[in-house]
Amino acid sequence: MNFQDIIRKKRDGHSLSKIEIDYLVKGISDGSLPDYQIAAWAMAVYFQGMDDRETRDLAIAMAYSGEVVDLSFIPGVKVDKHSTGGVGDKTTLLLTPLVAAAGIPVAKMSGRGLGHTGGTVDKYLSISGFQAERKYSDFIKQVQEVGAAVVSQSGNLVPADKRLYAIRDVTATVESIPLIASSIMSKKIAAGANSIVLDVKVGSGAFMKEQEKAEELARLMVEIGKKAGRRVIAILSDMEQPLGRMVGNALEVREVIDTLQGRGPEDLLDLSLVLASYMLILGEKTSSLEEARQWISEILVSGRGWEKFQEMIRAQGGELKDELDNYGLPKAQYQKEVIAEKSGYVSNLNAFLIGHSAMLLGAGRARLEDDIDYAVGIELLKKPGDLVQAGEALALLHLNDEKRMESALLQVSQAYQITPNKPQKPKLILDIIQ
Ligand code: URA
């Protein structure tokens, strides 16, 4: 087979056969195809798209391009959860103990953050001593004993996606719905769960800025999962504004702890309850959404979720001190208020600008190899719908390097829109696709 012919076929808008896609994926994984040919193919897909069958074939071929996790040693239905990436999105940290306490084993592999969105593993790593790299046998043993483990994605999983994503990242071909759908689903299929709840984000802080595109992505991912024998539900949720009030690794862990103790922000709690409830349904614990919601709420209110959180952290070497010591989480040296210039209602809070400002402070990475500062970030004192007086603080920057302050300060104030009239409350859950 000549790969030049495959690129030409896609360039001219034709569908590739399964044999051609398998050849492509093998060439990406074993290094026999050079970067420039893979890049040319990705650009052809960017413009010409792929039909559903090609997208499925690509996802499944990539899923089996390396190791595939075997969770069969863990009894029960294993349910995974995935977010397409957002700002202040700490739902995995919150719902993992809640769902585990309801008897659903959570065996989760998560990634590190890149760009304006944070990564789940980075958030856990802000806890002193926490180990995200675990031997496979220890990972399985922990899920059997504790009911939950969240680790870094193993290096041998989906090598084809790893190489393809790195090429897409530098060739302006990330923003292609079939490539995103196949990339995400290849990792979810390889991670071994029977069922998957997808949180597809929509808005300024998300990959998908428009609901129509997010719906298309969600539909494709559900379809790929079903073809691979998984049960999949996609929840479309708002990412026009950040989730919760904290953005930045240790700050977000603190917000999760507060929420597990009954003092969390409404939007974070609402979305986590919906995601956790669907995990209970896919985990075959109940078929009633109402019952699932009640069950999760009881686990939260009784403190069993907080206990399970601590148990999982301890099992992975983490040490949480008491509240007076901020649970041992790192604290930034300086705090700087972002002041409102006029009075009115916060009508919009741009999630992208907040995520980008947190990255400028050092909470996120511009490149995958960058170091991050776990302590820094942004505390959002005002959110959409809140009344604010001129001169009042809108947000608090937590920072260690004063040189990084000016640009972050400017972006955070640009992120806030203040208008005279009270805006309508933004809708959090936009659609459910199954
Ligand atoms: N996240 C992924 O894992 N892959 C993509 O292509 C985009 C977002």
Which helices and strands, and how do they pair?
Layout: H1 3-11, H2 18-30, H3 35-48, H4 52-63, E1 79-83, H5 91-101, E2 106-110, H6 120-125, H7 136-146, E3 148-152, H8 159-169, H9 177-190, E4 195-202, H10 211-227, E5 231-238, E6 246-247, H11 249-260, H12 266-282, H13 289-302, H14 304-315, E7 334-339, E8 344-349, H15 351-361, E9 377-380, E10 387-388, E11 393-399, H16 405-415, E12 416-419, E13 429-433
Parallel strand pairs: 1-4, 2-3, 4-5
Antiparallel strand pairs: 5-13, 6-9, 7-11, 8-10, 8-12, 9-11
Helix pairs in contact: 1-3, 2-4, 2-8, 4-9, 4-10, 5-12, 5-14, 9-10, 12-13, 15-16
Bound molecules: uracil (URA).
Uracil binds at residues 165, 174, 179-180, 183-184.
Give a description of the structure.
The chain has 434 residues and is an alpha/beta fold. It folds into three domains: 3-49, Transferase, Pyrimidine Nucleoside Phosphorylase, Chain C (Transferase, Pyrimidine Nucleoside Phosphorylase, Chain A, domain 3, Up-down Bundle), CATH 1.20.970; 79-315, Nucleoside phosphorylase/phosphoribosyltransferase catalytic domain (Pyrimidine Nucleoside Phosphorylase, Chain A, domain 2); 331-419, Aldehyde Oxidoreductase, domain 3. The chain is 45% helix and 15% strand. The protein is built from 16 helices and 13 strands. A four-stranded mixed β-sheet has the order 1-4-5-13, with helices on both faces. A four-stranded antiparallel β-sheet has the order 6-9-11-7, sandwiched between helices. It has a three-stranded antiparallel β-sheet with strand order 10-8-12. α4 (52-63) runs parallel beside α9 (177-190), α4 (52-63) packs across α10 (211-227) and α12 (266-282) packs across α13. The mean pLDDT is 96.
